[in-house]
Design a protein that fits this description.
Largest interface: A-B, 26 and 31 residues
Largest sheet of chain A: 5 strands, mixed
Number of strands of chain B: 0
Order of helices and strands of chain A: HEEHEEHEEEEEE
Order of helices and strands of chain B: HHHHHHHHHHHH
CATH topology of chain A: Sulfite Oxidase, Chain A, domain 2
Strand content of chain A: 25-35%
CATH superfamily of the largest domain in chain B: Cytochrome c-like domain
Strand content of chain B: under 5%
Helix content of chain B: 25-40%
Helix content of chain A: 10-25%
Shape of chain A: globular
CATH architecture of chain A: Alpha-Beta Complex
Radius of gyration of chain B: 22 Å
Oligomer: heterodimer
Number of helices of chain B: 12
Number of helices of chain A: 3
Strand order of the largest sheet of chain A: 2-1-10-5-6
Distance between the termini of chain A: 49 Å
Number of domains of chain A: 1
Radius of gyration of chain A: 19 Å
Distance between the termini of chain B: 41 Å
Number of strands of chain A: 10
């Protein structure tokens, strides 16, 4: 049975409305970070969980040259907790692994797993939840990545929502 | 021996000097200007040959509001840069002292100290000292309508107020009444017009959650979101990618074709601070409201500008609900700094 004509005309309208909502960000990101993908155990971390992990502070200049101190947990430690290869395990096939960081607004960037290790990069990538001692909020928070090794800020994902670990060769 | 009467006069004289020689902030007039910036604002870039002093800022303020600096003796810098309109003029395009309509609108001067390029699209116009000569002496179009050798300094030289102000601003340099010193003082005053105390600043930097509405908070998130990407041009503390500072004075600036009809040129990204009081918008004043501007960018350009091959790829369009639109406007309104619109330090001293 064919749907009535008025229903047919409603379908594209409904699609347009859903598409519009799907393309905009109406609220700041939830205070929960998901680590998923090829990890031993999927992790859901909130602000309290991050507060209990080993923490560090990195001071970097913002685009205007003002030095800003971000505090949080090294991404390497979070991945390690989820069971991703680290240290001596990071060789051979494990090096063909990447991390997809996703933001609440749909922004995505990629890191190689090797970038987490001090043997490959000078400074650790940090999942920050504080800026100059105050919790991140609004479009910056509640979690964001800080990438001290990067000259550009494009991978310092704001409103960080999930970290997906992908192992290409298993 | 100095008599009692003379002693009293000397005291009075020294008091006068003290009064004249101090800025409103209470520092000596020849000392470096005290910016009083919040932590979130870097110190502006200042050319080495025109250091900021309280004296030059004060002199520049008198000059800025002086109608003797126009061909028709009726206009001053403040005619096109009104404090209550964040130092813009409320017109689509500016009007010169001969009545000539200009091709573009007068830009806001708020936070112009952080602007890496001046005017709408001249990447070579980098200092306020150079720029000040354009409205004063420019003939295409005629703005203030002065001639550099027209004798406009003569009445200033005869004014006792200026005699004190010029001598204090440029001590020991022979004749202080020069065009070079006029533009230096104007530049110093313009650099002092800093807007850093908007409700947004109280919310974002001082963490006062009550400073802005929930709608403005949602608008901020939208503004900085990937789908809208407003921040890619209007980013940073000054909401402009043409921003420089003392720490970052050599920053490469980008100019953008904004998708307007007949818009073959590229334009500097103006600051969004106080944008709610600087209508109409864009270089040609073609949008009356902030909603119009948002609709323009959501559509990815207007008319022939939409498909202009020179249009900046960042102006690709986006989806926006009515609520999003209201939230974005609320966010932009939260950038209005009432203090800079009424601050006596920037008002007409005459």
């Amino acid at each position: 049975m064919k749907p009535p004509a008025f229903l047919k005309s409603l379908v594209p309208c409904l699609f347009l409305v859903l598409a519009a909502h799907g393309q905009t960000t109406e609220q700041a990101a939830p205070a929960r970070l998901t680590i998923l993908g090829d990890v031993a155990s999927r992790l859901e971390l909130d602000a309290d969980d991050l507060a209990k992990m080993p923490r560090m502070t990195v001071t970097i200049p913002d685009p205007d040259g003002t030095k800003v101190a971000y505090e949080g947990v090294p991404l390497r430690d979070i991945l390690k907790r989820a069971g991703a290869p680290a240290e001596k395990q990071l060789r051979g096939k494990a090096l063909a692994s990447y991390i997809l960081a996703k933001a609440h607004d749909g922004y995505q960037v990629v890191f190689t797993l090797a970038e987490m290790e001090p043997e490959f990069a000078d400074e650790p990538i940090v999942v920050a939840d504080k800026r100059d001692g105050k919790p991140l909020f609004g479009y910056q928070g509640p979690f964001r990545l800080i990438c001290p090794n990067d000259k550009a800020g494009a991978r310092s994902v704001r409103m960080l929502e999930s970290i997906e670990f992908v192992q290409l060769k298993k | 021996m100095i008599g009692r009467k003379h002693k009293a006069l000397l005291c009075l004289a020294s008091l006068t000097v003290l009064t004249d020689g101090r800025t409103r902030a209470g520092t000596d007039a020849t000392e470096e200007y005290a910016w009083h910036l919040p932590k979130s604002f870097p110190k502006p870039y200042v050319p080495a040959d025109n250091p900021m002093t309280a004296a030059k800022v004060e002199l520049g303020r008198f000059l800025f509001y002086d109608t003797r600096l126009s061909g028709n003796r009726m206009q001053s810098c403040a005619t096109c840069h009104k404090q209550e309109l964040a130092f813009s003029d409320g017109r689509a395009v500016a009007v010169g002292s001969t009545g000539q309509l200009h091709p573009r609108g007068a830009m806001s001067l708020v936070n112009v100290a952080y602007s890496g390029a001046l005017t709408w699209n001249n990447p070579k116009m980098k200092t306020l000292e150079d720029q000040a000569r354009v409205p004063m002496f420019g003939a295409h179009p005629i703005e203030l309508g002065l001639g550099e050798d027209s004798g406009f300094l003569t009445p200033l030289r005869a004014d006792p107020k200026y005699k004190a102000l010029f001598e204090r601003s440029f001590p020991g340099n022979g004749d202080a009444f020069t065009v070079s010193n006029v533009v230096k003082a104007l530049a110093c005053f313009e650099r002092s017009i800093i807007s850093a105390r908007s409700p947004y600043d109280q919310y974002h930097y001082d963490r006062d959650d009550s400073a802005v509405s929930e709608s403005a908070k949602r608008g901020e998130v939208l503004f900085f979101s990937q789908p809208l990407s407003c921040f890619r041009c209007h980013g940073g503390f000054n909401f402009s990618d043409a921003t420089i500072s003392a720490r970052n004075s050599a920053r490469a600036l980008e100019f953008h074709n904004n998708g307007l009809p007949n818009g073959d040129g590229t334009f500097k990204t103006p600051t969004l601070r106080n944008i709610a009081v600087t209508a109409p918008y864009m270089h040609d004043g073609s949008f009356k409201t902030l909603e119009d501007v948002l609709d323009h960018y959501a559509a990815g350009g207007r008319g022939s500008g939409h498909d202009n091959p020179n249009k900046d790829p960042l102006i690709a369009g986006f989806s926006m609900t009515q609520q999003d639109r209201s939230d974005l406007v609320a966010f932009l309104q939260s950038l209005t700094d009432e203090t800079v619109l009424h601050d006596a330090r920037f008002s007409n001293p005459w």
